[in-house]
Amino acid sequence: MLIFLGCYRRRLEERARTMSAETATGPTEDQVEILEYNFNKVDKHPDSTTLCLIAAEAGLSEEETQKWFKQRLAKWRRSEGLPSECRSVTD
């Protein structure tokens, strides 16, 4: 399993490098659709493996995908009337 993820990660990094110029202005509509689906149906807090798979599916780097999820989670929290950042219960 670890060998598979290592190979998959290398392919993802190569794909992200080739697509980075295209995504410099942000994700395309198709990429946003993939990200939104995963945010709403799969997990709002993806672990590193899931994040890697989502990034590969969307054709984005893991960093871009993680940043998108962080911003989308803050937007979702605000829409739910929660603070945009997680804080302790006493705040």
UniProtKB/TrEMBL annotation:
Q: Among its keywords, does the record have Transcription regulation?
A: yes
Keywords attached to this entry? Developmental protein, DNA-binding, Homeobox, Nucleus, Repressor, Transcription, Transcription regulation
Q: Which PROSITE patterns match?
A: HOMEOBOX_2
State a GO cellular component annotated for this protein: nucleus
Q: Which residues form a coiled coil?
A: none
User: Any signal peptide, and if so, which residues?
Assistant: none
Q: Name one GO molecular function term.
A: DNA binding
Query: Where does the record place the Homeobox domain?
Result: 28-79
One protein family per Pfam: Homeodomain
Q: Which domain of life is it from?
A: Eukaryota
DNA-binding region(s) in UniProt? 30-80
Record's subcellular location = Nucleus
Among SMART domains, the record links this protein to:
HOX
Q: Among its keywords, does the record have DNA-binding?
A: yes
Its recorded name reads Homeodomain-only protein
Organism of derivation: Theropithecus gelada
